[in-house]
Design a protein that fits this description.
By secondary structure, the protein is of the alpha/beta class. About 45% of the residues lie in helices and about 15% in strands. The termini are far apart. It binds NADP nicotinamide-adenine-dinucleotide phosphate.
């Protein structure tokens, strides 16, 4: 029998499902058989479109609004998910608020650091408080945080984003140790600058310099990121926890 990646019987709560990378994660997890609770912030139209797509694939899906920087909002979303789809046993913490343009430390507003703290650190603390207790009862769970290569690059103008994502990493490394005894794995997927719908639709970017420094000499795709999320969610990854997995063609390489 061929090796298979089967998520049937599992329910995922996926934050930022309406975003560029989230929508491909949603489709990929559904194609692996998972039911998916699709979180959005403002883009209800994209979330509804995805919901219909996922139902056509034969899985259960629903859309749920929340501000991921607010514990109260995440707890209200948990109640809504539980009431309609059940208790998730896979969390994918993917949402982020994008600050643009990035500025130097001397120019970046304090509000930007606070914004990144809320949507990176507070999001993960709140999702853990909301959804991990049900996994502990089940003695099985997967928590996957979407980080970034920026966390290792720490280049000029990346300070607010990196601070949020480094804080997120701190929370999740500790969580991995605290919930490991309940057979819950906690891992992070760290994309590079990824090709997604907006680029395919013609958004102009100058990526030649970026690509020249990547060992694989190309940018990765949304699908390549989603594949790693599905792997970490599956039983194939049952003995991996506390990992930071770069999906960036070798642009950053954690050394051992
Ligand atoms: N794209 C890349 O090249 C890249 C590279 C490295 C890492 N990443 C990471 O990958 C993840 C997804 O990135 P992306 O490029 O797909 O981002 P995106 O297209 O900007 O999508 C962001 C998502 O987060 C949601 N969101 C924004 N602010 C929110 C808030 N306050 N509360 C709740 N949800 C909020 C958005 O919801 P609405 O659209 O519904 O408002 C959207 O679904 C992020 O964690 C990012 O750091 C991306």
């Amino acid at each position: 029998m061929a090796l298979s990646l089967d998520l049937s019987g599992h329910l995922v709560i996926l934050t930022g499902a309406s975003g560029e990378l989230g929508r491909v994660m949603a489709r990929t997890l559904a194609k692996a058989g998972a039911d998916v609770a699709l979180h959005y912030h403002a883009n209800v139209a994209k979330a509804r479109e995805l919901e219909a797509e996922l139902k056509d694939l034969g899985v259960r899906a629903g859309v749920f609004q929340a501000d991921v920087g607010s514990l109260g909002s995440i707890l209200a979303m948990k109640d809504a998910v539980n009431a309609t789809l059940g208790e998730p046993d896979i969390v994918v913490a993917n949402a982020v608020s994008q600050i643009f343009p990035w500025e130097t430390v001397l120019n970046e507003a304090i509000a930007d650091y606070e914004d990144q703290f809320r949507t990176c650190v507070v999001q993960n603390v709140a999702l853990a408080k909301a959804f991990v207790p049900a996994m502990q009862k089940k003695k099985w769970g997967r928590y996957i945080g979407i980080n970034t290569e920026v966390t290792m690059q720490l280049a000029v103008t990346q300070s607010a984003y990196a601070a949020g994502k480094r804080g997120m990493d701190g929370v999740l490394k500790v969580l991995a140790q605290e919930v490991g005894p309940d057979q819950i794995t906690v891992n992070e997927v760290a994309p590079g600058w990824t090709v997604s719908d907006k680029y395919r639709a013609g958004e102009k970017v100058d990526d030649a310099g970026y690509i020249a420094n990547i060992p694989l000499r190309r940018r990765g795709t949304d699908q390549e990121v989603a594949n790693v999320v599905a792997f970490l969610a599956s039983d194939l990854a049952s003995y991996i926890t506390g990992a930071y997995v770069p999906v960036c063609g070798g642009n950053v390489m954690p050394r051992v």
